[in-house]
Amino acid sequence: MLAIEARNLRRTYTSRTGFLRPRRTTTEAVRGVSFEVARGELFGLLGPNGAGKTTTIKMLNTLLLPTSGTARVLGHDVATDPVAVRRRIGYVFGGDRGLYDRLSALDNLRYFAELYGVEPREQKRRIAELLDLVGLAGRERERVEGYSRGMRQRLHIARGLLHKPDVLFLDEPSIGVDPVAARDLRRTVADLRTGGTTVLLTTHYMAEADELCDRIAVIAGGTIRALGTPDRLKSRVQERDILEIEAYGAADEHLDRIRELPAVRGVAAEDRGSRQAVMVQTERGAELHAQVLAALDGIRIGRVVTREPTLEDAYIAIVEEAEQAEESEVAGIGTGGSAGDDSRGATADRSEEAAV
Ligand SMILES: Nc1ncnc2c1ncn2[C@@H]1O[C@H](COP(=O)(O)OP(=O)(O)OP(=O)(O)O)[C@@H](O)[C@H]1O
After folding, report:
1. pTM to 2 decimal places
2. Is the ipTM value over 0.90, yes or no?
3. 70 CA to middle of ligand 1, Å?
4. What helix, strand, coil percent values describe the chain, rounded to 5?
5. Which domains can be identified in the chain, with CATH numbers?
6. Could you read off the pLDDT of 266-311 as tens digits, one per residue?
C-alpha cells in the first residue's frame, strides 16, 4: 500500500478585500497535483515561495479540504476519513510556534504525550527513545526558552513523533538554523527514514534535498514541473557548465544582457549578504567568461569559477522554464487556460516518473 497518493489535487482560496467596495479575490494555490509516495520513502517537495507546497501538505494532513481531487494517506481518504489519517501522521513545521517556552523539553514532551493519547506506561520509554533519536538526551530538563533554534527544531520533531506516526510531514525544518545544527537535523531526518518512517519534506535548501531525498517533486505556480530522483533531475542540466560570479550590485538589466548571449541557457542571482552569486548556465565547453564579464561592466566583481551543475542549478532551470511558460500563457501564446496547466503538470509527472 502506498504511504501517500495524491490525485489531481486542487485548492482555491477565496478572500474578500476592500472595505467600502468589497471584492472577492481567488487564488488558485494548487492546480491539479498528482504524485505517489511509497512507504519508507523520503520524498521532497521543492518550489519557490508561494508555489503551493504548504497548501499541498495541509490537504494531505487534513488541515485543509481540497477544492477538488482526492488524496489518500496509508489508504485513508483525507476528506472522508480524516480521523484515521490523523492517527497515523505527524506534522512538524519550521519556526517557533508549538512549544511551551517556560517548560523544560521533558515537560513539553510529557504534555504532548498526554494530549496525543500515548499510554501512560509507554510515555517514559517513548520520550527517552525520542530524546535520544533527536540528540537532546541530557538536555531535557532545561527550559526550552534557553534552547537554540536547531535544538527547538529537533524537539519539534520529537513532539511530532510521540504517537509513532507512520508518515511524517516536515515543513521547512531547517529554516533559520545554522549550518552545524542543520547538519545534525539532517542526520535526525535520515535516521527517521532508516527507522522506516515515511517522510514528506519541504525545504528551500537544495543541498539538504539532494542529500536526503529518494525522490523530489518540483512545484511552481501550483503544478508539478518535474518529478524524479535527485540524479534524474540533475541529468537535465548535465550538458551544461555553470559559471559562478561573485558580484556586487548586479541588476535585472545586467542579467538580461547575459541572457541574450549565445550559448547561455539560464541565469539566476542569489543574494548572499552584501554580495550576489550570479549563476550562468552555458552549453558545455562554451567559453563565455569574457562576454559575461563584459555584460557585467561597471559592477564590482569578485571570484569567478566554472563548476559542475548541482541540484540547485537543475532546480533553477526547472523553475525558470515554468516561469517562462506562465509568461507566454499570460501573453496568450501556447495552450492557455487552466486545462493547459493540468496537462503540463500531469505530463511532467508521467514522463519523469517513467524514467526513474
Ligand atoms: N489562507 C490563504 N488565503 C489566501 N491565499 C493564500 C492562503 N494561503 C496561501 N495562499 C496563497 O496560495 C499560494 C500558495 O501558498 P503556499 O503557502 O501553499 O505556498 P508555499 O509553496 O508553501 O510557499 P512558501 O515557500 O512561501 O511557504 C500563494 O499565492 C499564497 O499567497
Report:
1. 0.84
2. yes
3. 20
4. 40, 30, 30
5. 4-233 (3.40.50.300), 239-308 (3.30.70.260)
6. 898 988 888 999 999 999 888 888 999 999 988 999 999 998 899 9
